[in-house]
Write a structure and sequence with these properties.
This protein is α+β, with helices and mostly antiparallel strands. 27% of the residues lie in helices and 34% in strands. The protein has a single domain, classed as Nucleoside Triphosphate Pyrophosphohydrolase, CATH 3.90.79.10.
């Protein structure tokens, strides 16, 4: 899927992101059960830590991809988990700027090269008291990633079609903080994409469908 063939899909996605989004109902399809708390982002928006994350789409060998990262063990929260590039909002910047800055720091992707398409529904993460605000952007071709070794253990490039295939969605019983939890996840090359990342992806995929 070269840049020209990608344009109609990105135009449609951009249009949908400006309208009503499926929101929490879509996100909850990939939520662990039970969730550690049931508050929505707009109920804690004043008291939570705000973070911006980037859902970055691009074509590679005629296939639409998105990029995720495996966090290092040195991170304060969610060590070794699969996540979108992103991080905490700094004073003086909006959440789009946060997502772009963090993506540049973690993966070396320059903000001026990106086409911003819109935003997904914010999501509250109770264990870290963080509200993540997903920003969606695209590139006309696969970027050359420059991984930050302090923050990123591994760059994971996932075909969107892989995530849309039901046979790649699994569920297991885990013990989290001493409690048995049913955890749905997307499986990709041995990586289990779960939690907030999977919940954000669930909304994006519903919009794309």
């Amino acid at each position: 899927m070269n840049a020209t063939r990608l344009d109609p899909l990105l135009h449609l996605l951009e249009k949908k992101l400006r309208g009503d989004k499926p929101g929490l109902n879509a996100q909850l399809k990939m939520a662990p059960r039970p969730r550690p708390g049931h508050l929505k982002y707009d109920e804690v928006d004043v008291s939570c830590t705000r973070a911006g994350v980037l859902t970055l789409l691009y074509p590679w060998n005629d296939i639409l991809f998105l990029v995720l990262t495996k966090r290092t063990e040195r991170m304060r929260y969610h060590q070794s988990q699969i996540s979108f590039p992103g991080g905490r909002q700094e004073p003086g910047e909006d959440l789009v700027q946060t997502a772009l800055r963090e993506t540049c720091e973690e993966l070396g992707v320059q903000p001026e090269s990106l086409r911003l398409l819109g935003t997904l529904t914010p999501l509250y993460i109770p264990p870290s008291n963080t509200c993540i605000h997903p920003v969606v952007a695209a590139l006309p071709q696969r970027p050359s990633f420059a991984r930050s070794p302090e923050e990123v253990e591994e760059v994971i490039e996932v075909p969107v079609a892989h995530l849309r295939d039901p046979k790649n969605v699994h569920e297991e019983l885990w013990t989290i903080r001493g409690i048995p939890v049913r955890v749905p996840f997307y499986l990709f090359k041995g990586n289990k994409i779960w939690g907030a990342t999977a919940m954000v992806l669930a909304e994006l995929l519903e919009i794309l469908n």
